[in-house]
Amino acid sequence: MLQATSNYLQKKGITSTTVVLDKARAQENIRRMTQKAQRAGAIFRPHFKTHQSAVVGRWFHDAGVRHIAVSSLAMAEQFADLGWRDITLALLFNPLEIDRAAQLARSLTQRGGRLGLLVDSPHTAGIISAAMDVPTDIWLKVDTGYGRTGTPWEDGETLRSTLAACQELAVPVGLLTHSGHSYSARSAQAINRIYAETISRLRSARDQSRRHGLRLSVGDTPCCSAVDDLSACDEIRPGNFVFNDLMQLDIGSCRIDQLASATVCPVLGVYPERRQVVVHGGAVHLSKESLPGPNYGCLGTAGPEGLGDVLREAPLVSLSQEHGVVEFARENFEALAGNLRPGDLVLVWPVHSCLNCDLMREQMAVPLTI
Amino acid sequence: MLQATSNYLQKKGITSTTVVLDKARAQENIRRMTQKAQRAGAIFRPHFKTHQSAVVGRWFHDAGVRHIAVSSLAMAEQFADLGWRDITLALLFNPLEIDRAAQLARSLTQRGGRLGLLVDSPHTAGIISAAMDVPTDIWLKVDTGYGRTGTPWEDGETLRSTLAACQELAVPVGLLTHSGHSYSARSAQAINRIYAETISRLRSARDQSRRHGLRLSVGDTPCCSAVDDLSACDEIRPGNFVFNDLMQLDIGSCRIDQLASATVCPVLGVYPERRQVVVHGGAVHLSKESLPGPNYGCLGTAGPEGLGDVLREAPLVSLSQEHGVVEFARENFEALAGNLRPGDLVLVWPVHSCLNCDLMREQMAVPLTI
What is the CATH code of the structural domain delimited by A24-243? Predict the structure, then answer.
C-alpha cells in the first residue's frame, strides 16, 4: 500500500518534502461552507491564514467569496495586492502599524472595498479614530470563554467605553469572537454546546453595549463545521476547514474524505528492528503541533483518485527539526513498510494544516495539486 | 523595566514581530567555539540550519570558518551560491535528489571545494557511487544512542557493507553522529557522560568498520559547548550554540549572556485581572517547541548594551498560531507590566532558536542586529 502511494507520488515528479493539495476536496469544502453561510444568511469571510495562497484564494473567489480575514498586516497587504478588497485584519490591532493600516484602508476604499480592524480597548480604538482618513470597520473583540484576547462578554462598561472611543471614520460594525476552546471538544454535542454559549454571550454583550445594530461574527472551524444552523451569526470566519487535518478529524468536525492537504516526505532511513521509518519531514515542515500519543502526524495514501486514507497504525511519534520518526504498530511493519527504502515517498497527514502550510509558504504560492 | 525595553526597541524602528540578534554575543559564541575546535585539533564545521543567514554566515567566515553543514539540499545550494565551497549535507541523503546533488558536487569541486553526504545503507551508498562524476565525501551516519537515524554503532556488518558499497568517486571519509539525546541532559556532568559514551561507541564502530583512517565527526551543541576537551573528535558540527536559547540554558550548556537571538513582539492586549499580556508572537514566529511548564518562551530585557536578562517570572504559558500569552507571577504583574499597553514592544527569548529563526527566515537574510 505504501509502495503504491510512493510510486504514484514519484510519477508526479516529487523529489523533496512537498505540500500537496487535493483540489477537488478543498473546493468541495469551500462549496459546502459557502452554502452553509448562505442558508444562515451570514456573510462568509474565510480566514486566509490557513493557506496564505493566491491559488487557493482564487478557488474561494470562484465560489463567490468576496470578504476575507487575515492574521497580519503583511498578509492583508499581500491579498490586497492580489485584488481582494474587503479584508478584516482578524487579530487585535497593533497600534504601531497605524500608518501602514491607514494607507491600506485608503487603497481598499479607493477600490470600493473596506478594511476591518479589531479592538478590545478604548486606547486602541482612539488611536485608530485619530488616524483614519477613510471609513474603517471596527469590530469589538469579545471574549466569550476562550480566555485569550477580547473584552470579557459580561464587561459592559469596557464595551461601552471602547465604542465611545470609536470616533470620526472608525465605524463600529460588530462584535467578533473566536471560540478557540472548541478545539478541545471531541464530539458534535460538545461543539454545539460551545456554539450555543458563544451566541448567548455575544447577544448579552450586544445588549450591554446598547448598540443593537452591531453584527455578530463567529470564527472557529469546529463550530462552523459541526453546527448545522448558523443563522444566529451575521458573519462566519472559519479558515482551517478548507483543508482540515488530524486535529479536526479528532474533534469530529470533518470526515477523512474532507482532508485536503498533506505533506509528501522522502524516506531517509528504514529501521525494521525498531519498526521505524525516518522521513525528511520535521518541525520545519509539519510544526511541533501534536495530539496525545504524542502524534505529530500520520501516514496516508494517495493515488489517481486524489488523497486517500489515514493510516492510524503509522503515526509520527517524534519530530526534530528536519526528521520525523514513523513508528508502525507491531503487526503492520512488514505489510506496510517491509519493502520501503530510502528514496521512497510517504504521504504525511498534518496535525494542524494552518501551521504546516505556513511553514511551507513558499510552496503555497503555487501549490502542487492532485 | 519592560517599559524601558519597549522604548529602546521602538527607537530601533520596530513595529511588527521581528527577530533581533545581539551581534557581539553571537560573534563571541563563534570565537569561543572556533578556539575550542582549534585547541582540539578538530575541523570546525558549524551547522548553518540554525541561522540560514547570509549575514551570520559572514560572521563565521570572518572568524576563519571554511567548512559548513546544512540540513537540506536547497540550503546547500543557497550557501554555495553565497560562495561557500565545502558543504556537508548533514542528514541522510535522499536518493531522489541525486541529480541535483551531483550537479552541486561538480560545482563545488570546480571551485576547489567538496560536497559531503551522509548514508547509513549500502542502498544509498550505491546510488551515490553510480552517479557522482567528481569526488564526493561520504560520511557513515552512526547511531551512538540517540535512536533516530544511522547504523547502530555495534552493527559492524552493516558498517562494512555500506563501506563496500562506496565505489568510484564516493570516498568514505568518516563516521558521523548526532548525539541528540544530550538535549535531555540537565547538567554538565550528564552531558560529559553522553559525550564520553559517544566517543567510545564511535571508536568501537571504527574498529568494527576495519578502516582506521576514518575521521570522527560529532555534532550536538550541548556536548560541543559543555565538554572542555574535544580532542577525540576530528570534526565538530554544532549549530545552535551561535544563538543559544532557553533550552540550552536549561540544559546548562550556555549562560544568559550567551543568548544571542530573540523575537520582539508587539503587545496586543493587556488583562490585569488574569495577570496576562497577549503578544503578536505565536507558533508561526516562535514554533510550538516548549519546555516543561509549559513554557513557550519568556520575556527579557534589551537596551543600548544589547540583549539583557531573562525574566523567568514572565513565561509564555500558551501559544496559538499568531498569539502568545504571557502570564506574570502574581507579585510581578504591577511592577513589570502594570503600565504596558497595546503597541508596546516586548522581547521574547525563544525555547529553540533554530526553529524560531527558520520561521523568521525571510528576516534572517538581513537580520536586525542590536
Answer: 3.20.20.10
Q: How far apart are CA B310 and CA B313, in angstroms?
A: 9
- ipTM of the shown complex: 0.96
State the pairing for strand pair B151-152/A18-21: unpaired
| Chain A residue nearest residue B151, CA to CA | A271
Residue A344 confidence (pLDDT) above 80: yes
CA A298, CA A237: separation in Å to the nearest integer? 28
Higher pLDDT, B331 or B300: B300
Question: Quick check: A268 and B94 CB within 8 A?
Answer: yes
Q: What is the pLDDT of residues A157-215, one digit of tens each?
A: 999 999 999 999 999 999 999 999 999 999 999 999 999 999 999 999 999 999 999 99
Look at the domain A2-21+260-369 and name its fold.
Lyase, Ornithine Decarboxylase; Chain A, domain 1 (2.40.37)
CB contact under 8 A, A269 and B121: yes
Nearest-angstrom CA–CA distance, B116 and B79: 14
Q: Which CATH class is domain B23-243?
A: alpha beta
Q: Is the pTM of this model over 0.80?
A: yes
Among candidates A16, A123, A284 on the partner chain, residue whose Cβ is nearest the Cβ of B341: A123
Question: So where are chain B's domains?
Answer: 2-21+260-369, 23-243
| Per-residue pLDDT tens digits for B233-258 | 999 999 999 999 999 999 999 999 99
CB contact under 8 A, A96 and B359: no
Question: Looking at residue A150, what DSSP letter applies?
Answer: S
